[in-house]
Design a protein that fits this description.
The protein is an alpha+beta fold and about 850 residues long. It is built from 25 helices and 39 strands. The structure holds adenosine-5'-triphosphate and magnesium ion (MG). Its EC number is 6.1.1.7.
């Protein structure tokens, strides 16, 4: 069965069991501070397990793009070395939200694997949770009894908390699980060694393919477990592993999921997969990492120097250095694999098709720049090794610095060192790495207490679109500690505060009673819950508070948000419809908009975009807002949706004239409220991504006033009333004429001096010698010396410029003297320049040295005479 059919069969099977099939959520997570990337199928449903939202259906199935490269689940070090862990993989999953439980989950998993996919029953093992004393849990007898109805009892194994108890994080919903393992060793091996002994032992052909999680507890901050009122099912099956089993292969890389890109890489590198262990690992790493990087970029996460972007950059660099080290690839090559990936997966994941230009452009540019880094790192390391001399060990901090500041991989340092007969101080390097890990752990450490629930029935709604003030009650609060200190998070029964999202910053403001006023310093969304940040807890948390959003700030934010929409549309009109939003910041201070476009914008284009936005402001277009619009209807109307954004079936549509966007942000009632729009800068942030920064309203008006004032200051300085350009042009012309005059004066002076010099020449041992001090600049002095040497036979001219800051010495010697007497101006100038604390050199007949100490000039000139005596 090919992999496309395997995926289709899974989704179809659960559809027939009453499941709603949904799309994969984007790989990059937006409103979950505990996770950077989706690392399991359940991540997008977390809010339902936490009770912060209701799913569209209580049975759902999908395939989810997952990335396990950071945080609790990090498989990066295994990827490529083994044949069944990937950075990016698809997780097939079925969910029950308070609906069916263990019985159906187990029966359907069994039916699908053995009947639909036809996996032989005597190759399957399953595990059940044995219980944990510390947690006060016991053997999962329910699961055990249910499995016994399907599978021989001796194929059921007991697993401990590490393998068979699944937790979302340190706190939150959790529960026992049952894993399904498949033994795909050849029959002879299976007969020789019982597969049972190999389950969960890291055997590459006795592997876990599916995990059925039975969510029935809540882990609290003090570590204790509480039973959940509603019990859920959360399952995850590795798609690539399933393909390996069903296609009778012994490695995920031998399936049709990876074979096409491997073939292409063989063609590019000239290295055959299977030729040697080292090159095989490199090939696996590269075709694996390609997927992680491509899917992340297609979902809008560009490589960068911080956060999720940095993780993506590191993965790409890891692939590049494997190619460089083992496949001898020192030109960008990964981007060339992309068309194959797109052809294979683009049908099911259309973002790969739509984002092709950006993805390949960004990857190619990153490759080129990292290959330059590698070259520089190599040079640096070679230099360091030269200097190290006899020690034969490259210190750990050097290796770490190369790695940390230049991104130069430690294993490359190791190889270069070995080539020179050196080793690297591994322990020292590890110690530096450990220190860094500790530093970053400290910087991000976050301790979250349990929620203190004040009103369990409070429905916690947002009224931010409709009002900026409201009477609110706290429904729950908790204490949070990070490296900046201790603060509190509050949730209200209803809130006028807008939570940071879609680039728009969170609201600030106050909540107050008659007795006290508390500042809300930020508002964020977490798993669909609006959380208000405060530094101190109110005295009486049960009071009714009057909540006030800081309207001054909110109004400016709102103007900037609407201006962003107008600019987005103007950019598409001026530059073309390839322009797509790639990121934005909408604050009260300014707006920033990143978008796809391959060339620097011209002055005229920038001016035109600015003009178009200001025209829309002048047209005074009213806001037309539609909440709860069917997404299909909105898209049919031409609304712009963003890649990497998760939309529900019902969306909010914001329209100003012909600008239509799906947007959750706040907007002005009429474009006239924006008053004025001004672009401050246009620049590049990555290959094919441009960035515009702009301001609106008072800020824009002030900035024009400021510019006007500067202009008036210039007019005043130029002593003119109106035409500054003409006045400046006049100044420039005058300046050029004066420059010419000065040059001619200098030339006259030089030629007058030359006459004086000529008269001062004296004959010593048949050489016409002159050593003289001058006030000419070094250029004129040198030219005079050259000219004199031409005019007079057997000349040896030494000129010192009497410059207090930068004295210089020039020596010019007739060519025949150089030959006959073996004189060398370069050597002589080096010697005598020591008096002026300087150095220099040149040829045998002409040399110059610059110095720092004019007081030594006389001594230098005097010493010159020694060379002709
Ligand atoms: P393993 O012990 O093999 O790392 P896991 O216990 O981490 O697996 P789960 O978190 O239970 O796996 O994920 C569910 C399923 O997803 C696994 O049964 C497996 O098929 C698949 N899976 C997990 N991690 C990876 C990975 N890095 N690459 C490919 N598939 C994976
Ligand atoms: Mg794992």
């Amino acid at each position: 069965m090919n992999s496309k059919d395997i995926r289709k069969e899974f989704l179809h099977f659960f559809e027939t069991k009453g499941h709603l099939i949904v799309d994969s959520a984007p790989i990059v997570l937006k409103d979950d501070p505990t996770l950077m990337f989706n690392n399991s199928g359940m991540a997008q449903f977390k809010e339902f397990f936490l009770g912060n939202g209701t799913p569209k259906n209580n049975r759902i199935a999908d395939t989810q793009k997952c990335l396990r490269v950071s945080g609790k689940h990090n498989d990066l070090d295994d990827v490529g070395k083994d044949t069944y862990h990937h950075t990016m993989f698809e997780m097939l999953g079925n969910w029950s939200f308070g609906d069916y439980f263990k019985k159906e989950a187990i029966a359907w998993a069994w039916e699908l694997l053995t009947e639909k996919y036809g996996i032989s029953k005597d190759q399957i093992y399953v595990t059940v949770f044995e219980g944990d004393k510390g947690d006060g849990t016991t053997l999962d007898e329910e699961a055990l009894e249910l499995w016994k109805q399907h599978i021989a009892e001796d194929r059921i194994l007991y697993g401990n908390k590490k393998d068979n108890f699944w937790e979302m994080g340190d706190i939150g919903p959790c529960g026992p699980c049952s894993e399904i393992h498949v033994d795909i060793r050849p029959e002879a091996d299976r007969l020789a060694v019982d597969g049972k002994a190999l389950v969960n032992m890291d055997h590459p052909q006795v592997i876990e393919i599916w995990n059925l999680v039975f969510m029935q507890y809540q882990r609290k901050a003090d570590g204790s477990l509480e039973s959940l009122p509603a019990r859920h099912i959360d399952t995850g099956m590795g798609f690539e592993r399933l393909a390996m089993v069903l296609q009778g292969k012994s490695s995920n890389y031998d399936t049709d999921v990876f074979q096409p890109t491997i073939l292409k890489l063989e063609e590019i590198s000239g290295v055959k997969y299977g030729a040697a262990e080292k090159t095989d690992i490199a090939i696996r790493v590269i075709v694996d990492h390609l997927r992680a990087v491509a899917f992340a970029i297609a979902d809008g996460q560009l490589p960068s120097n911080t956060g999720a972007g940095y993780v993506i950059r590191r993965i790409l660099r890891r692939a590049i250095s494997y190619g460089y080290r083992f496949l001898d690839l020192n030109e960008p090559f990964i981007y060339k694999l992309y068309p194959i990936l797109k052809a294979e997966m683009g049908d099911f994941f259309p973002e790969l098709v739509k984002q092709e230009t950006i993805v390949t452009g960004v990857i190619r540019e990153e490759e080129a720049s990292f290959l330059r880094t590698i070259e520089q790192g190599l040079n640096r390391l070679n230099q360091i090794i030269q200097q190290l001399g006899d020690s034969k060990v490259v210190p750990g901090d050097v290796v770490f610095e190369l790695y940390d500041t230049f991104g130069f991989p430690a294993d490359l340092s190791r190889i270069v060192a070995e080539d020179h007969g050196f080793t690297i101080d591994e322990a020292g390097f590890e110690a530096e790495m450990a220190k860094q890990k500790e530093r970053s752990k400290k910087a991000t450490a976050l301790v979250t207490d349990d929620w203190v629930i004040l009103d369990a029935a409070g429905n916690e709604t947002s009224i931010a679109y409709d009002t900026k003030t409201a009477d609110v009650k706290i429904t729950r609060y908790r204490k949070v500690k990070n490296n900046k200190g201790e603060f509190f998070q509050l949730v209200f029964n209803q809130t006028p505060f807008y939570a940071e999202s879609g680039g728009q910053v969170g609201d600030v403001g106050t909540i107050s009673t008659l007795n006290e006023t508390i500042e809300i310093v930020d508002t964020k969304k977490e798993n669909n819950l609006v959380i208000h940040f405060v530094e101190t807890l109110p005295e009486n948390v049960n009071a009714t508070f009057s909540a006030k959003v800081n309207t001054e700030k909110r109004n400016e934010i709102t103007k900037n948000h609407t201006a962003t929409h107008l600019m987005h549309e103007a950019l598409r009109e001026v530059l073309g419809t390839h322009v797509e939003q790639k990121g934005s910041y909408v604050g009260d201070d300014y707006l920033r908009f990143d978008f796809s476009h391959f060339a620097k914008m011209t002055e005229a284009e920038i001016a035109l975009v600015e003009q178009k936005v200001n025209d829309k402001i002048a047209e005074a277009l009213p806001l037309i807002e539609k909440r709860d619009c069917e997404i299909s209807e909105a898209l049919a109307d031409g609304a712009m949706a963003l890649f990497g954004e998760k939309y529900g079936d019902k969306v909010r549509v914001i329209r100003f004239g012909s600008s239509i966007e799906l947007c959750g942000g706040t907007h002005v009632k009429n474009t006239a409220d924006i008053r004025l729009f001004r672009i401050l800068s246009e620049s590049s942030t990555a290959a094919g991504i441009r960035r515009i920064e702009a301001i609106t309203s008072n800020k824009a008006i002030e900035s024009y006033k400021e510019a006007d004032k500067n202009y008036n200051d210039v007019l005043a300085a130029l002593k003119t009333k109106n035409d500054a350009v003409k006045a400046v042009q006049h100044l420039l012309d005058e300046n050029a004429a004066l420059k010419k005059q000065v040059e001619s004066f200098v030339a006259q002076q030089a030629s007058a001096e030359k006459a004086t010099w000529k008269a001062a020449i004296k004959e010593i041992n048949g050489i016409n010698f002159l050593a003289i001090k001058t006030n000419l600049d070094v250029g004129a002095a040198k030219q005079n010396a050259i000219d004199l040497t031409k005019e007079i036979e057997n000349a040896f001219i030494v000129v010192g410029t009497n410059d207090a800051v930068k004295p210089s010495i020039t020596i010019s010697i007739a060519k025949n003297l150089v030959d006959k007497k073996g004189l060398n101006a370069g050597n002589i100038v080096k010697e005598i320049a020591k008096h002026i604390n300087g150095g220099g050199g040149g040829q045998a007949f002409l040399a110059t040295a610059g110095g720092k100490d004019v007081n030594g000039l006389d001594a230098a000139l005097k010493q010159a005479e020694d060379f002709v005596k």
